[in-house]
């Protein structure tokens, strides 16, 4: 065991727990206002989030002696948002055209492909690429089950194999979790979970399909059912993935090269993609701007919470992988899963005297406590699908479906009609796999 002498930036004492209040207020705002006052929130969210983050930053820099700690966090934020943004731009240049109507089997193929794609372009990118063709192929019989299982599989659980797949895992990668650790330790859990969800969806969708008056002419043409445009963007995608992997081998003073390459790939994709493809995808920068603003506040405001957990983890009463699995998961389901992941990762490491902000500590801790990391990682990704507010792509998918007039479940219906009867059994199976 290593003694916890300091966190990144030279801190030797934990901040007062009261300084976690701004972080809690941000998360509660993200959870409540989009449902209670969506129009007000869409215009005013920067006025809520940024001042709370700035308050914590000012305290750390000028009063707590944590200027280096906050600068370290700023570097992490830049790396995080550049990855998310570059994947978003590249995904916006890939268009999938659909001809005809989907059968249940073809829906399963698309969702399975989305689960794999999520690990290459992120759950946000995969959701953006596939939700519109998925809608077009099923619009003649679109039902709430279609949006629920799309969110389960493509927008969340599918992205559990790489740090690129889901924001929590990329934050872990920035903290020192090796790039290929995730797929090495989680592939079997991922495969079982995706297989169970696809099997349940196929049974439900087949029953729904048989009750509908299918447009036979359209289904007969399904041999020509898909056209992919924007293939050159696959090159830019490969560049981004290469930069992420190579970043683990760069010395600290040269790690900025990773972000520079990703930015260059995003610019190259945007400039070379025909305007018509962006129009077909309804591409605009509003979603990534919103994510950037929200996470600017989150990254700054969560620093006191992370540092307090590092110093006081033993006081939480969580000591087992199972305990961390359910605590991380339940928190991720009602709050954003990325900060939930970091908070419980910090707590798990703090139990043994390790700091989440020290990459050497991370490697030593993983060597003897990989079971803890498995529990926190898989819970953050999978439980993000439990509600509309568990992960960023969830609300985006619902919004796109609502805009087309497709029927989607309400917040409460989503939970009791789909999360509890279908996702919860998968989460219970996963619990027994990661203990």
Q: Could you walk me through the main structural features you see in this protein, from its secondary elements to its overall organization?
A:
This protein is mainly alpha-helical and 435 residues long. It has one domain. 71% of the residues lie in helices and 2% in strands. The chain is built from 18 helices and two strands. The chain has a two-stranded antiparallel ribbon.
Give a brief description.
The protein has 435 residues and is mainly α.
Q: Which tags fit this structure?
A:
435 residues; mainly alpha; two-stranded antiparallel sheet; 71% helix; 2% strand; disordered N terminus
- Give the biggest beta sheet: 2 strands, antiparallel
Helix count equals 18
Share of helix, binned: over 70%
Strand line-up of the largest beta sheet: 1-2
Strand content bin: under 5%
By DSSP, the count of extended strands is 2
Envelope shape = globular
CA gyration radius, whole angstroms: 21 Å
Please specify the SSE layout and strand pairing.
Elements: H1 21-36, H2 38-62, H3 67-91, E1 95-98, H4 104-138, H5 144-153, H6 167-175, H7 181-210, H8 216-220, E2 226-229, H9 233-247, H10 256-272, H11 275-280, H12 286-301, H13 303-312, H14 321-334, H15 337-351, H16 359-383, H17 392-404, H18 411-434
Antiparallel strand pairs: 1-2
